[in-house]
Amino acid sequence: MEHLKGLQALLVRPIQPDGHGDEILSAKLIAEGALLHHFPVMKITPLESSLNQDLISHYILNLFLYDRAIFVSRAATFFVVDWLKRNSDLMPQVLPVGPRYYAVGKTTATELKKYNVDAELPECEFSSEGLLGLTSLQRLAGEKILIFSGVGGRQLLPDQLRSRGAVVSQCELYHRKISTDYTRNINDLLYSNKLGVVIIHSGELLAHLVSQIPGEGLNKLKKLPLLVPSERVSLLAKNMGFQYIICAPSALAEDIISVLSGWCSNQR
């Protein structure tokens, strides 16, 4: 049954570095009858300077020395595995046995599983907060932890791990940069008055989207239903003036589809 039949949805998540978009969510939206407009407002690009590459090589080659390794995203997994493939003369194309591995979310854990890594992850809240709630990350005195991530972003995870006694290093692998490739498409879609919902996966994506919509278009955007993956992003959206927010329990495709289908049913 097509629960979302006729619904026009805007998805702004970036294309992943492996060349794929959010194919699971996209496929499910289309299968449920939605008309999907995927217009990314962010690009994920690798850190390519010689200094950055030297640092990345140092961290990966010494990964076996760490007690725990945390992958914060699917992109982080991709870039580490890509390094292993390009440097097979320095290190086997596998992640070393020894560290205890963690993933912030299910998609990241699924990617790691492809390389024979069973990563621990939260049961339901797939976020830094959820990861920090794991029993195995409560007492960390003297433990060495390596976090694979992008440049910048929230510092909650490393800060909290340090407060619990861990010695934390961060291996930054990629930039998240605003993309304006689809600015005109997004504004044209807003002024068509046919858009039914906007799907946002993070506060950063929301900020990038808002920055590309001037004048009356921004007023139109803030009146549209906005689907977000957490109470934290919901609060950010409210503070930005969004009037109608639908909050899913997580960014998982099944949670987004479930909440969106329920919302659509109530609108009919």
What does this structure look like?
The chain has 268 residues and is an alpha/beta fold. It has 2 domains: 8-41 and 179-267, Rossmann fold, CATH 3.40.50; 46-177, Rossmann fold (3-Layer(aba) Sandwich). It is built from 11 helices and 10 strands. Helix 3 (74-86) links the parallel strand 4 (68-71) and strand 5 (100-103). The chain is globular, with a radius of gyration of 20 Å. The model has no long low-confidence stretch (mean pLDDT 93).
Distance between the termini: 15 Å
| Average pLDDT number | 93
The protein's oligomeric status is single chain
Number of helices: 11
SSE string, helices as H and strands as E: EHEEHEHEHHEHEHEHHEHEH
Tell me the total number of β-strands. Answer: 10
CATH architecture of the largest domain: 3-Layer(aba) Sandwich
CATH-defined topology of the largest domain: Rossmann fold
Uncertain segments: none
The CATH class label of the largest domain is: Alpha Beta
Number of domains: 2
- The percent of residues in helical segments reads 25-40%
Measured on Cα atoms, how large is the radius of gyration? 20 Å
Q: Order of strands across the widest beta sheet? A: 2-1-8-9-10
Broad shape:
globular
Largest sheet: 5 strands, parallel
Instruction: Kindly name the structural category.
Output: alpha/beta
Instruction: Please report which band the strand proportion falls in: under 5%, 5-15%, 15-25%, 25-35%, 35-45% or over 45%.
Output: 15-25%
